[in-house]
């Protein structure tokens, strides 16, 4: 069985002071560096539909209103190697046109080049889902790909 499209095509990360975030059609991933030796009991993480807060050892690292809504019951966080917190949020709106331009409403925005690369990746991911027999992981896209690219769903097979 082949790896999922996002694993084969790589990620387009947006760097932040505390780590990075990136997205697929369905999910938003947040990676937060924490002091080595951090224990799960030192972590306080709240994941709500439009709000996130993360504190480690009483210090607030990330807090605010998310760019768009997520499925509350499907958000998770894990502590890896006692030095990285990985948060996975499931997007409510899962189409290629829903490319988050920032993690929070007014913070951690992707610069224009990164935003462009994120949108291209989501458009290719959409094409991969619509055409499962083809491998788009090494493909390049040009032209009109904003808002998810052209809609071919009305074309006959």
Automatic annotation (TrEMBL):
It is found in: Chromosome, Centromere, Kinetochore; Cytoplasm, Cytoskeleton, Microtubule organizing center, Centrosome; Cytoplasm, Cytoskeleton, Spindle pole. Coiled coil: none annotated. Pfam families: CS. One of its GO terms (molecular function) is unfolded protein binding. Its main location: nucleus. May regulate the LIS1/dynein pathway by stabilizing LIS1 with Hsp90 chaperone. GO terms for biological process: protein folding. The gene is Nudcd2. Residues 14-104 form the CS domain. The lineage of its organism: Eukaryota, Metazoa, Chordata, Craniata, Vertebrata. Residues 138-157 are annotated as: Disordered. Keywords: Acetylation, Centromere, Chromosome, Cytoplasm, Cytoskeleton, Kinetochore, Phosphoprotein. InterPro entries: CS_dom, HSP20-like_chaperone, NudC_fam, p23_NUDCD2. This is NudC domain-containing protein 2. Gene3D superfamilies: 2.60.40.790, Single helix bin. It comes from Nicator chloris. Interacts with LIS1. PROSITE patterns: CS. Signal peptide: none annotated. GO terms for cellular component: centrosome; cytoplasm; kinetochore; spindle pole. It comes from the Eukaryota.
